[in-house]
Amino acid sequence: MKHTTGIHHVTAIVGNPQENVDFYAGVLGLRLVKKTVNFDDPGTYHLYFGNEQGSPGTIITFFPWPNAYQGRIGSGQVGVTTYIVPKGSLTFWEDRLSKFGLAVTKYERFGETYLEFDDPHGLHLEITEREEGPNSAWAFGGVPAAHAIKGFGGAVLLSADPLRTMRVLTEVMGLTRVGEEGDFIRFRASGDLGNIIDVKQTTMAPGRMGVGTVHHIAWRADDFADHEAWREHVSAHGHQVTPIVDRQYFNAIYFREPGAILFEIATDPPGFLHNEPFEQLGETLLLPPWLEPKRAELERILLPAEVRVLKEDL
Question: Can you name the residues that pair with 39 across neighbouring β-strands?
Fold first, then answer.
């Protein structure tokens, strides 16, 4: 029986790239660890945000589509992306989100207090406190390391077929069912980041991909050999899985589970330091070798997007 330690990354579609950087770096205090392009659509950025080095379990990635149509969150998608912060930090985050004018809902689920809010493009996010998981060493703007986001707590899945999705989580991905409360069933992976998945039992109208929606959720594979074993494992359970794809910072395979959510399995190595020093992560546009000849053309197409301290923190 194979089991993943949890979420590797979550990838979403957003709008203007500067608004995206201002929110995730400027407001949430995450580090932009890689500025590159969508290898399948090079005229679009692929921006990666995480802890100080973009560790697996902390990485949220974005395809900014300026002026694109708004998506609809619904069945077949990740409904909410959950972040965790150190114990005692929730008041800091409640005050900070209020300072930036965000509408925040505070509520309880499975004995935890959550702050739920949307990013500027409609993506549903929530923050809760947990002891588990290493603290981030990154501080930026008005977010000190003591209160910085550690990484993912997990996600809420909106499935078109919740029973079959839950079977995939346990029988294929190796998560353990740990609780039920109201409309949610909770599952736990073996790691300490991105390890809690809540599945909504009631189905919703189908989601529509567009700005403000999650494109896919990626699970962790330990290394390249483990990744190959995962591909065989997923295929043996009857799922159509892609060949292994080199994404420069990890290798990836993809399959759509029966509830219509796109799953990826990604390798922990090589990570974001293999082609950029720690001190300079995310500062320049990095292109894969096959796109380097098109750098001038791509830089003309891509809108400017830079990390900056926001006026509210000056």
Answer: none
> Measuring CA to CA, how many Å separate 71 from each of 34, 165, 194, 275?
25, 22, 24, 34
Q: Which two tokens stand for residue 178?
A: 């740990």
Cβ neighbours of residue 93 closer than 8 Å, sequence gap 6 or more: 85, 115, 127, 147
Domain spans of the chain, in order of start: 7-313
CATH superfamily entry for domain 7-313: 2,3-Dihydroxybiphenyl 1,2-Dioxygenase, domain 1 (3.10.180.10)
Neighbours of 178 (CB within 10 A): 12
Residue 254 burial by CB count (10 A; 0-12/13-18/19+): exposed, middle or buried? Answer: middle
- What are the pLDDT digits (tens) for 158-176? 999 999 999 999 999 999 9
pTM value > 0.85: yes
The total of other beta-carbon atoms located within 10 Å of residue 21's CB is: 24
Q: Are 184 and 109 in contact (CB under 8 A)?
A: yes
Give residue 87's pLDDT. Answer: 98
Q: In what order do the strands lie in the sheet with 31-38?
A: 31-38, 41-50, 59-64, 7-14, 213-221, 262-270, 250-256, 245-246
- What count of Cα atoms within 13 Å lies in the side-chain half-sphere of residue 216? 15
Strand extents, DSSP E, the chain: 7-14, 31-38, 41-50, 59-64, 77-85, 105-109, 112-118, 124-129, 151-158, 176-181, 184-188, 196-200, 213-221, 245-246, 250-256, 262-270
pLDDT of residue 1: 87
